[in-house]
Amino acid sequence: MMFARGSKRLAPQCSLALSKGSRYSTPRLHNYSTSQPPKPPKETRVPQLIRPYIAVAGLTAIISLGYYYTRNRPESLGDASQYLRPELIVQEAKTSKDLSKEENRESLSSQHVQVKRSWERPGLYAWGSNTGLVANPDSNEYVVKTPRRIPYFDGMVLRDVKLDQNFGAAITERGDLIQWGKGYSKTDYKPTKTLKGKDLVSLCITADRIIALSSSGNVYSLPASKFEQENGRKPFESSWIPFWRTRAELSYRPLQPQLGLGEKVTAISSGLEHVLLLTNSGRVFSAAVGSEHFPSRGQLGIPGLTWSNRPKGPFDSCHEVIALRGVPITNIATGDCHSLALDKAGRIFVFGDNTCGQLGLDINVGSPFVDSPQILPLDTLYPADVYDVQASGIAAGGTNSFFTVNAKRILSSMEIPTTVRDLGRVTSDVWSCGKGLFGALGTGKWTHVQSKPTKVKALSGLFEYSDTAQKVVPIGISRISVGATHAAAVLANFTNVSASKDGSQTDTNWGADVFWWGGNEFYQLGTGKRNNVASPMHIHPPADVVTREGQREESRFQVTPRRTVTLDGRKVSLEQRVECGRNVTAVYSGV
């Protein structure tokens, strides 16, 4: 609590207030102390003629209050807690006898409608900048202000989606690559299948290339441009005829790290000019993939590596990050020019550009680039010897980094177990660093440069009661997606997708909560407004999932967790995912 400067020995007056409309409201402490003592009130004289009447009225009030307390007082001090509970206000149910059970459910809950529509009509919503015809290939409008479906993807479930302001890329359920936008072709900019037959499972994009990973661990690097795909050098591919090879239909380059027996690439992540490859053995490789510039800000994790002294061979040769050899890495993330790696023990390694503090390390003005992985000291974020701190997730994009951390309360050498009430309690927190000029830090502040990780309070220290565990449990983060200047976080809150026909009309489904924040110049937050947002917030659901007037305005966008449903007569396991790109955002049905 902060006191006003120069305040004297005055007892601070405090009040508790809950944030209106917030599910996870927290008490706010207000301090009304001043630097000057209060002035005595002016004396008010009461005429003598009305003094008797005032006395009688006061006596009557005292007797009435005494009678009320006698009739309504609690029997014991233990029962007094009942009178301290906040009043529960129940909204009148919007049900009707003229509607069916399912229709009443839809009228009651837009969350139920969102879950139901995601099963019945899978597809892709997009919004934000449309200068490259990515958010809406069928319209020439400059921006798409709120979530809107791209008709081409109606009824489709996708393996992965990545968006740039100029081009979009997606992987179909069968593993084929789809591209669209002016960055693909200024004339044929509508969604088109390009790289086919590779059984792709995930992808990432650079400034002008697409990096795709197949189920067998092969990595393909191909230009985003249709012209370059058709006119560039095309590699030989094996054929179904023994000892016969043919030219590929498109130009692409295979990225081939030196792997051990049984080792294969399982994850990829890219910045503007580089890509990281993670193998099933926990090894990390990096490669240059920019068509115009060689990565020179340390993001490859190879000390001293430049264009002039690079090893002989292709410019996009894969290099093992030697500093991480022997460290079992489980996750990787990249921003425009920096890289993150998370190991099995919950440690975070950072390297690359740190000009905006995106590595979470102190900025060295004379040498702002870190070309060898360094451990991010997470223990300095919590009181010493009181918490066991382990990172559980990493995310990056643009000039920002995010870390999810599980902090377990432990006993310090100076404490007695019986005096520590929260011993063993685990709190899930989110920390951010980097550039906050557009609000991308999510801290409520517009900090230009933030080198020391700062807590995103709106996403930290959240709890809910678990019926399964019969106790209060922390609400973690399922996933954070980071674009160039904005971000979104999906909570790992309790969801319900088991409402059945046999249940009551109030038995509804609901999904996972999503928060959005950051730059909004191109309406990429989906609020319908253009102002940047420095604190995580909800947005309204798409207009096509509401069933009654006013339902959209009173509801929030949620995403559906994984569930096996029947789609076109076949069983499909799908979920909704959020993807933040460069000034564009998407929510799609993923397999």
From TrEMBL:
Residues 25-46 are annotated as: Disordered. SUPFAM superfamilies: RCC1/BLIP-II. PROSITE patterns: RCC1_2, RCC1_3. GO terms for biological process: mitochondrial respiratory chain complex III assembly. Pfam families: RCC1, RCC1_2. RCC repeats lie at residues 346-407, 428-493. GO terms for cellular component: mitochondrial inner membrane. InterPro entries: MitoProcess-Associated, RCC1/BLIP-II, Reg_chr_condens. PANTHER family: PROTEIN FMP25, MITOCHONDRIAL (PTHR47563:SF1). This is Mitochondrial protein Fmp25.
